[in-house]
Amino acid sequence: MKITVMGSGGVGGYFGARLAAAGNDVSFVARGAHLEAMRRNGLRLDSELGNLHLKPVQVVADARDIAAADAILFAVKLGDTRSAAESLQPLVAKGATVFTFQNGIDSAERIGRIIGANSVVPGVGRILSHILEPGVIKQTGTFARLEFAESNNEPSPRTAAFREACQGAGFEAVLSPNIGRELWLKFAMLAPNAAVTALARGPISLMRDDPQSRPLLISLVEEAVAVGIALKTGLEPSDTDKIMQLIDGLPKQMMASMAHDIIAGKPIEVDGLSGAVVRLGAQTGVPAPSHKFIVQALAPFAAGKRLG
Hints:
The chain is an alpha/beta fold. It has helices spanning 10-21, 32-41, 81-87, 89-93, 107-115, 157-168, 179-200, 204-208, 214-230, 239-248, 257-264, 274-284, 289-298, and strands at residues 2-6, 25-29, 43-47, 52-54, 58-60, 71-74, 97-100, 120-133, 136-148, 172-175. Strands 1, 2, 3, 4, 5, 6, 7, 8, 9 and 10 form a ten-stranded mixed sheet that branches. Helix 3 packs across helix 5.
């Protein structure tokens, strides 16, 4: 299968490398030091699920330099969505489908406005991974899973083909029976995790396991679930407890990508995470004071600002 990886960081780099190692024709789109390191030394996975050194790799700075693709694994940061989607228009015009695994909750809609809604398949990536150093992806934990489906949850040849390629690469790939609910379950877990780990500039255990900080984490989950319920996404009040159980099962050292980004002085996705909860809460009449606090606390770092 011809696959383009748009965004070769923790998500795209990991799954793209596994797909390439399994014999698929994979082209990566990267930039900066990560791009140069991949050109020189290939792409290395430092992974609890098995290390991998992919060398050489097909990597370019611009998707317009790729001749054709069957599937595009879309995993860029939220702030890069528009420019990345626009660069994919030639590939989509030749028949490529975009499978999006971005953070946030409206990725498929945002991409669809640029390349056409029928060319986008929404998905959820479940993995703990980040760029450890240029050319190296660090994955922790015992899971690496992609869930996706057509927006109407109906089966299709293109989702079946992509799932087959993923399964052949040795990682979990699931056609979700209710992709809308899965997107919100992940969002209601990720937005709080990103919020507290970025706020603490440290692992989840700092806030999760502290009796004074834990109520903030719980309220962040409760607010996200309440907004999801108001929007009739399939979430239920009991999902708050389910999500907290999942958070309690995360490794002590887990840090969301937003925490890694704020430490590195990179732009962070707070507007698409806690900011989205606040905006959607306002639309539905659901208060989200804890997420509003996160937006306010992290505002100085939203566009990128190196600490110290």
